[in-house]
Amino acid sequence: MGSAFSCPVSPGLYEQFLLFGDSITEFSEKQDVGFGFAPALRYAYIRRLEVVNRGLSGYNTAMALKVIDRVIPKPCEARVRLMTIFFGANDSCFPTERSNQCVPLPDFKANLIKIVRHPAVTAHASRIVLITPPPIDERTQQAVDLTKGFALRRSAENTRRYAEAVCEVGKELGLPVLDLWSIFMLQAGWKPEAEKPLPGSLDEAPNEELARLLIDGLHLTPAGYQLMYDQFNVVLAQAYPTEVPTRLPYILPRWDDEGAWSNFPS
């Protein structure tokens, strides 16, 4: 009997760099307003890895677990060499009668661990980077929620707890974490030792830096994606130095590589 991951096809030419997350991952593909995280990665890894965007708008970790077998290819279809796991923005919503996005904090942490340890993921022995949800701007998010008939569904402080949970999971599992929450908050002038309300809270004055990084108080602007990309490369170089693009060879030879062409099968 074959394994649960057996299949009749052969792996593709390129190994994959798979981005698994919610709308912040999905929307990172957009280039109509400026810089996009996914296209930037795709160009950086061109001819080396296939960058695959599996961002799913509105998804939380519970939904991610329901579809993970369909998101992650079988090893015989493609090998996932690198992977980002980027959830929490929806899990951290407050529950409402018309929204099932909320995942309680203990369940969120447990779900993240289940995703990392899921057979569909472990079959690839991927190099994984966890990403925390970014902070939110309550004032801007409140205006967005009101147009949808909701009260404010997220808070700066609750989002902080979910970001901290991602960092805790990373420490527990020995995985690198891109702490986007702290990176953005430090840009916004946050001091870890400060006791006053967080930047982005309704009790604080509007924060120009968060407005520059967050397009609607939650999703990222091109400047936000640029900062995310720059800091991701720092984390990657520290955690997996052999996986930075310049350390990976081209899969097919350069046009002027005479030695490679002389040995290339006809």
UniProtKB/TrEMBL annotation:
For the SGNH hydrolase-type esterase domain, which residue ranges apply?
Answer: 19-227
Q: Which SUPFAM superfamilies match?
A: SGNH hydrolase
The keyword Magnesium appears for this protein: no
* A Pfam family the protein falls into: Lipase_GDSL_2
A Gene Ontology MF term for this entry?
A: hydrolase activity
Q: Which UniProt keywords apply?
A: Hydrolase
PANTHER family named in the record: ISOAMYL ACETATE-HYDROLYZING ESTERASE 1 (PTHR14209), ISOAMYL ACETATE-HYDROLYZING ESTERASE 1 HOMOLOG (PTHR14209:SF19)
This chain belongs to the protein called: GDSL Lipase/Acylhydrolase family protein
- Natural source organism: Trichodelitschia bisporula
